[in-house]
Design a protein that fits this description.
The chain has one domain. 65% of the residues lie in helices and 0% in strands. The longest helix is centred in the last third of the chain and has 17 residues. It is globular.
Length: 101
């Protein structure tokens, strides 16, 4: 039984390990806590474009990091906290010239 519990705990912690150890994007501290979608989008764009370790395009990397944060926070994100993140996605699309017309 102890092995099963340890395995479950290990599987749950993978996202914390990625957040802590990943250096694919060097993000501004506390950027996801900002209430300004323009600031979030600009910071993610800058980080994605400057990264030498990303495996995808800057746009894909920036959107992926934003989605990763939202998914990891899950139900702990209030509507008030989630709103600027959702708006930042649209801002990122515009910054990268990918907005729908």
């Amino acid at each position: 039984m102890a092995t099963k519990a340890k395995t479950k705990a290990g599987k749950r912690k993978w996202s914390a390990k990625v957040t802590k150890e990943s250096d694919a994007l060097s993000l501004e501290k506390q950027i996801f806590k900002s209430k300004d979608p323009d600031k979030i989008a600009a910071s993610l764009k800058h980080s994605a474009e400057q990264s030498q370790k990303r495996k995808a395009s800057p746009f894909q990397s920036a959107i992926s990091m934003l989605n990763f944060y939202e998914n990891r926070a899950g139900e702990n994100l209030s509507r008030r906290q989630r709103a600027p993140l959702e708006k930042a996605k649209n801002k990122l699309r515009k910054l990268f010239g990918r907005s729908e017309k």
